[in-house]
Specification:
Pfam families: UPF0172. InterPro entries: EMC8/9 (IPR005366), MPN (IPR037518). This is MPN domain-containing protein. Belongs to the EMC8/EMC9 family. By secondary structure, this protein is α/β, with parallel strands linked by helices. It has a single domain, classed as Cytidine Deaminase, domain 2. Helices cover 40% and strands 22% of the residues. Strands 1-3-2-4-5-6-7 form a seven-stranded mixed sheet. Helix 6 (162-171) crosses helix 8 (195-217).
Length: 218
């Protein structure tokens, strides 16, 4: 398996999406940096740089899903990214397996066009109880199935502040500001790019770095 890394923004938005709708299944799309993709390689190295929340009640391949995926493909090209994966969180608090996740046809469609795609299952229980470790399960598509893969946290998340930033967002109830495609369909003036979330993360990382520098000077 090629090396996979997750940037904080991609991770945080998945977690916020699940936290905003704890009573619903949610799903979304993952973007990877296109400059790191090697044409023809079977196991691509992926740098997952962003996630785009899709639905909390319209999960299956439908006219709305088709519209969302078309827009996402255009956005990916504009940002020099590729659609490299799918994420989902189950409706039932105790479910955290691929088989229970919504919208698997979307995930399979992504894997059809990009065989190195990943499927991330958000572990609902960990969002509430364990903010000190990643609340996800990583899967790769192989032999027609999504198979669970072990990962090294330090390798998967090069940004040492990813848990702190996500925790700060949850403690500040910033999940209420997250906009998924369902929200965007209700009001197209809403920012589906979630620039606010990106700003919060950058501000938190900056504050942490400044704090570390200050402590070293003392």
């Amino acid at each position: 398996m090629g090396e996979i890394t997750f940037q904080t923004e991609a991770y945080a938005k998945m977690i916020l999406h699940a936290a905003k709708y704890p009573h619903c299944a949610v799903n979304g799309i993952l973007f990877a940096d296109a400059t790191k993709i090697k044409e023809g390689a079977k196991n691509q190295e992926l740098d997952i740089v962003d996630s785009y929340p899709l639905f909390h009640h319209s999960h299956y391949v439908s006219p709305m899903a088709e519209v969302a995926l078309t827009l996402i493909e255009t956005m990916a090209q504009a940002e020099n990214c590729i659609v490299a994966g799918y994420y989902a969180a189950c409706e039932n608090f105790r479910d955290n397996t691929v088989d229970k996740c919504p919208g698997q046809k979307i995930a399979e469609k992504i894997a059809e066009y990009f065989p190195s795609a990943v499927f991330i299952v958000v572990d609902n229980k960990r969002i509430i109880r364990h903010l000190d470790s990643p609340a996800i399960k990583l899967h790769k598509y192989s032999e027609g199935k999504w198979k669970l893969k072990e990962f090294n946290t330090n390798q998967l998340f090069p940004d040492r502040f990813f848990l702190h930033s996500t925790s700060q967002l949850l403690q500040g109830h910033k999940e209420t500001e997250l906009v998924d495609f369902d929200n965007y369909l209700d009001d197209v003036s809403k920012d589906w790019n979630n620039i606010k979330i990106r700003t919060y993360i950058l501000d938190d990382i900056k504050s942490e770095i400044e704090l570390i520098k200050k402590n070293k000077e003392i």
